Sequence to fold (181 residues):
Amino acid sequence: MATASHAQAARDGGNPFLRTVGWISTLAGWASAAMIVAAVAVTCQMIFVRFVLNQSTVWQTESVIYLMIAATLVGLPYVQRLRGHVNVDLIPLALKGGARRAMFYVTMGLSILIVAVMLFYAAEFWHLAFSRNWRSDTIWGVRLWIPYLSLIVGLGLLLLQLVADLVAVALGHDAPYGLED
Fold:
């Protein structure tokens, strides 16, 4: 049975770019996990304040929502790196050799294009929130550019991981869809 480190070495082939992107994606995964733990801790604190101390909460609900959204977005590159997304690989399994490779390049190219467009509009949206000093319509009134930054970070790192996956296959360090012929 191969360990996670062997699987990683098989994917990056020692290439510095692929190793760096893998390291960044792993770091993003740890950050995502930390945000989930923080959201759980804040939720527990909120329950204590509301039901034990019988006081109102101001920032907890909103912060948990932003933390969970950020955890989802920032965790995207790590999940992509591990091929953890739900997928249906019936067609790639049925295809062999050049056909599978061609399908990989088409689907990966389209994925990169779509994520790049989403990143462009996320950056534009973030800039609007930042330049116009948008705030949430709550008592806490958080500056919205802060939670919206997770859109740029998450999509940017996902784009980087998708490019790394494409490069890994192009250089022969990985097989299309992780499926050997």
Q: What stands out?
A: The mean pLDDT is 90.
